[in-house]
Amino acid sequence: MNILLLGSGGREHAFAWKIVQSPDCTRLFVAPGNAGTAEIAQNIALSGTDFKGIHRFIIENSIDMVVVGPEEPLVRGLVDFLESQPETATLPIVGPSQLGATLEGSKDFSKRFMQRNGIPTAAYETFTADQIEAGLAYLEKQNLPIVLKADGLAAGKGVLICQTLEEAKVSLKEMLLDAKFGDASSKVVVEEFLNGIELSVFVATDGKSYKILPEAKDYKRIGEGDTGLNTGGMGAVSPVVFATADFIKKVEERIVKPTIAGLEKEQIKYKGFLFIGLMNNNGDPSVIEYNVRMGDPETEAVLPRIESDFVGLLKGIATGTLSDYELKISPNYSATVVMVSGGYPGSYEKGFKISLPNNVEGSVIFHAGTTRSNSGEIINQGGRVIAVTGIGKGLEEALKNAFSTVEKISWEKAYYRRDIGQDILKLIN
Q: Per-residue DSSP letters for 234-262?
């Protein structure tokens, strides 16, 4: 198969790394890719939102399957566009329709979907700018802390947990009246705060059948001890010790099955990955949010644990034959540590040369915000730059392997958290 993979982050490098291991992959193109994907595939200077350019490239390069990594092309309707063109109408695509992608594109839409289909989630109300007074009055009746979510896509930064009523009122006004997150916060979901431990469960589905992939726990805040600003993710571990077989069974029965059944019942076309952000409250799962693609950096921790052919999984999703695919999961642990540019998630400097080791043991280096300079050096080009995944028989060994590789990577002002996985280690020990 000639495969086109869309995206440029650590998630896409992990996808590419797994895809090229398959005997079913003849050629892999990544658009636009990064310095890491360029080493194992052919990068193409195409944006994921250049629908006409993608369509032209598919035809000119005899592409047999398209895999969409990030959410933006999906929310903008890439799948619908390709299916509306005669030449690509039947092309296998991994990614949901635009309506399916609204599960991530609109928090209000996804909350209403959960309500209709009896899926456990936090109580909520949604407000727009002309409902600001009603929104402020609603806040006064809620328990603290309270969660405010921008309805639309806000690059993982549109969720605020407010500890005081005053903070919540100021934040609601900033989001609705001052467009704090642009168009994304033209609607705001005000949501009950859920107590418990957070984790992510990943589901592959062809719209009818599904496979539950390994779960993961990510670390969102910039500072050690989960302090400071929210980021796109500073690390992840898989498996998650508190996600027992009993808990995952509850997730499957109460959340996965009703979600897939709801998509089918409401005729929402969905062939892709579903990332379910969950809260484990004393052994009972509740949905925090849906994302309509694999998570980043969780993908870098999850994919190394999949032992079965990955292209077979992608083909099963895209062609509606997922029930025939046998998913095999490794018992090994993986731990991912993300290295970022100094100053991230605020402003940061780009263009520093990255020093990378030639050989690493027990770990894999995934590129995210990297590019190759005109002189051939790999330089930092984004906020999250490198994700290192350590693999081991236990979490301690996986973490040791990850950090020993991280210590061999350097560039000016690089930063990473040294406490990734420590909370899980305490639970184990």
A: SEEEES-TT--HHHHHHHIIIIIHHHHHH
pLDDT bucket at 107, cuts 50 / 70 / 90: very high
Contact partners, residue 412, CB within 8 Å, separation at least 6 = 342, 349, 352
Please tell me the distance from the alpha carbon of residue 278 to that of residue 257, in angstroms, as a whole number: 15
CB 82 within 8 A of CB 88: yes
| Strands in 282-414 per DSSP E | 284-291, 333-340, 363-367, 370-372, 378-380, 384-392
- Tell me the mean pLDDT in the region 292-319: 98
Q: Rounded to a whole number, what is the largest CA-CA distance in the chain?
A: 60
Q: What is the pLDDT of residues 415-428, one digit of tens each?
A: 999 999 999 998 88
Name the residue type at position 267.
Q
Count CA atoms within 13 Å of residue 30 on its CB side: 26
DSSP code for 193: P
Q: How far is CA 181 from the centre of its chain?
A: 20
Torsional sign, CA 276, 281, 285, 289: negative
Q: CB 397: neighbour CB atoms within 10 A?
A: 16
Q: Residue 320's CB: how many other CB atoms inside 10 A?
A: 14
Q: What is the CATH number of domain 197-428?
A: 3.30.470.20
Beta strands 27-32 and 42-43 are: parallel
- Please give the Cα distance from 101 to 219 (Å, whole number): 24
Q: Tell whether the model's pLDDT for residue 324 goes beyond 80.
A: yes
DSSP secondary structure of 31-61: EE--TTGGGTSEE----TT-HHHHHHHHHHT
Under CATH, domain 123-192 is a member of which superfamily? ATP-grasp fold, A domain (3.30.1490.20)
Residue 90 has pLDDT above 80, yes or no: yes
Please say if the pLDDT value at position 98 is more than 90.
Answer: yes
What is the separation of C-alpha 19 from the centre of its chain, rounded to a whole number of angstroms? 18
Gap between the Cα atoms of 72 and 8, Å rounded? 12
Domain locations in the chain? 2-84, 123-192, 197-428
Enter the CATH code of domain 2-84: 3.40.50.20
pLDDT digits (tens, 9 = 90+) for 184-232: 999 999 999 999 999 999 999 999 999 999 999 999 999 999 999 889 8
CA–CA dist 264, 188 (Å, integer): 28
Express each pLDDT in 123-158 by its tens digit.
999 999 999 999 999 999 999 999 999 999 887 678
pLDDT at 427: 85
